[in-house]
């Protein structure tokens, strides 16, 4: 049977090296981690049967170090148009 017994719990001692220092972290007013947007790394168009979805690969500075995510380009552009101006100027210089 699926029964939880408190007597089966064991004490947990924190492992010091796994503790994250709080001095470099940023929080918003609801105490969520604020991840800093760094740059657009790559672009890709995901092709489906009847549509195409433009995506951008974004590099973030998060509490665990640099992270990369794929975001919808149109939604991301509405939130961060300054990054698209920077990538457009750098790509026109390269050509």
From TrEMBL:
Keyword Transferase: yes
Keywords for the protein's UniProt record, in alphabetical order: Nucleotidyltransferase, RNA-directed DNA polymerase, Transferase
UniProt-recorded Gene Ontology molecular function terms: RNA-directed DNA polymerase activity
Superkingdom of this protein's organism: Eukaryota
Name of the protein in its database record: Putative reverse transcriptase domain-containing protein
Organism listed in the record: Tanacetum cinerariifolium (Dalmatian daisy)
């Amino acid at each position: 049977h699926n029964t939880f017994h408190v007597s089966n719990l064991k004490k947990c001692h924190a492992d010091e090296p796994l503790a994250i220092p709080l001095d470099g972290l940023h929080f918003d007013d609801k105490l969520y981690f604020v991840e800093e947007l760094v740059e657009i790394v790559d672009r890709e168009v995901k092709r489906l049967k009847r549509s195409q979805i433009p995506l951008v690969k974004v590099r973030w500075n998060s509490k665990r170090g640099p992270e990369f995510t794929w975001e919808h380009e149109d939604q991301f552009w509405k939130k961060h148009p300054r990054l698209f101006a920077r990538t457009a100027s750098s790509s026109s210089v390269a050509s």
